[in-house]
Amino acid sequence: MEKFEQDRLEKLKKLREKGIDPYGKSCNGLKSLRSIVESYNEKGEESDNVRVAGRISSLRPHGKAAFADIRDWTGKIQLYIKLNNVGEDQFETFKLLDLGDIIGVEGKVFKTKTGEITIVVENLTVLSKALLPPPEKWHGLRDVELRYRQRYLDLIANEQAMKTSLDRIKIIKGIRNFLDSRGYVEVETPMMQPIPGGAVARPFITHHNTLDMDLYLRIAPELYLKRLLVGGMERIYEINRNFRNEGISTRHNPEFTMLEAYEAYGDYNSMMRLTEELVSKLASELRSDSNISFGEKTVDMTTPWRRARFNELLEEYAGVDFDDEAAMRQKAEGLGLETGNMPRDVVANDIFEEEVVPKLNNPTFVIDYPASLCPLTKLCEDDKRFAQRFELYIASIEIANSYTELNEPLEQEKRFIEQIGGKLDWGKLDDDFILALKYGMPPAGGLGIGIDRLVMILTGNPSIRDVILFPLLRPASRPPAEETVE
Length: 486
Known about the structure:
The chain is of the alpha+beta class.
């Protein structure tokens, strides 16, 4: 055991010998630290005593008096603890406190000569004795891996980590408020499904013992949400957790959060308008500037956003004509991409990902994708080679995906069979979904937005692990302790 832990255990013992419960009482009538600072700045005084609680982030003893800083999840405030104010017993208790301890205090608010808002403590309560010290004097964890594995330390030590987490909550709440105000209703669909559907991805497989059947964690809620359209629910959305048994990167986590929304009698144009209004509103609520710093990039969120067809962008940024298959395959080979017996649309999409996507910095709606890549989508009326689909890119990251939904049951059945084609060992035809379509699904627009990625953009965090509280990580032995201070 490290000496600093032994010292804290000794202080814990002394607190108990004084009759103090070091993991003590509930506290009622607490004010947030931010509200106290804002109230004092507004009124210039605080006539009543205030009660607050927080974690000690700084201790500065001065004989029979001391200064300390405490933090809660809204901010920081200075405490002034004086022997004459709290009495000998509580002052001795204060001497047994360490960085990281959680305390409650009551007292008057004033402003020091240096202009710092401070609470003159009149009563002090120990709420939780920390047996390990916080990392790096509250300047933040330097070990990125440790930040993700021990998020509780990250939230304690890094103000930005707490801000990002709270901003994520604001964004999700903002999505709900926006859609609710437009007549959408929030629904729930199964997370365990007998047939994985709605996307092409490798699922996680589990087993139900009583029914003796394999089930799949949801890769997408799409087919269940469309069943609700058939049932007459005309504007619906779900903020859902999806699971895909695939790679991990700065943009991918096997468990992720999606918004899916469907509007009967809409199409991908109405969903495009909805997406631009929603995302731009969220951005304006979170930040005053239309420019967002994202890694080395600066993204201009000013509306209206660019709309461009897939084949036009392919020619503009990759220099190839979608109609010239030979030139396109030659381009792909020059980029080191596999062509082989791959269909032209797949080759075109691979070139698009390699050459076009990195250049889509400001928000861009890429519309009208090659039809074979969109098995759940209606075709464009003016050119059946393309489908009524858009993807929204911001900072070269796909944020949203939308279709004019295919609602023709026989055509959908044909496309499902072509899509499965015996290539996926877990692939099955969802007969019940086809049956539902045969009862009639209204024309509809559908939209999916990756919430984790959207939060990345709006908070300026280039890694998905910074916006998920507990991202999935490779197994590791207990990480070495970060540098701590006493």
